[in-house]
Design a protein that fits this description.
This protein is mainly alpha-helical. 78% of the residues lie in helices and 3% in strands. A hairpin with a 5-residue loop joins strand 1 (30-31) and strand 2 (37-38).
């Protein structure tokens, strides 16, 4: 169970930092037709890169400490049939939530574009945040599902 908690919390932090980085980049970077451009990812980008390094080290340590953890499979690595069954049930929950969120975003984003048509940067940030939020919610659902089904069995 510890490997799933570590993996999911690490993924959630990674997506939060990536979402902040992309949102900052959308607001502060520009490209003009005359060739002038500026690419900025700010402090959030530095934090994101630092987290990737830290999380990679944590995963490598976890792989050495827990023989059932396979770094290429991440949270889906299972030590026995019970863990495989729990992962499948948690993935089923996650799939339903993710598809529902994406369908809502598929409808909401075009509607949102009508209201933000004059503000393309704000609209682009809203799209980045919506997609990042869907990923974060999906990781939380997987973790919650895993903990629920682990306690249930």
């Amino acid at each position: 169970m510890k490997k799933v908690i570590i993996e999911q919390i690490g993924n959630i932090i990674m997506v939060i930092l990536a979402t902040w980085t992309m949102s900052y980049m959308v607001a502060n970077s520009y490209w003009h037709a005359n060739g002038e451009s500026s690419f900025r990812f700010g402090i959030y980008g530095i934090l994101f890169l630092a987290w990737l390094i830290i999380f990679g080290i944590v995963r490598a340590i976890l792989g050495r400490v827990d023989p059932s953890f396979n770094s290429s499979q991440g949270e889906l690595s299972a030590g026995d049939e019970r863990e495989k069954a729990i992962s499948q049930q948690a993935l089923r929950w996650t799939y339903h939530v993710m598809i529902t969120l994406l369908l809502i975003e598929l409808i909401a984003i075009p509607v949102l574009s009508l209201g933000m048509g004059a503000q393309p940067v704000l609209f682009a940030q809203a799209v980045v945040i919506a997609l990042g939020g869907a990923l974060i919610i999906s990781f939380i659902v997987y973790l919650s599902g895993w903990l629920y089904f682990d306690a249930k069995e």
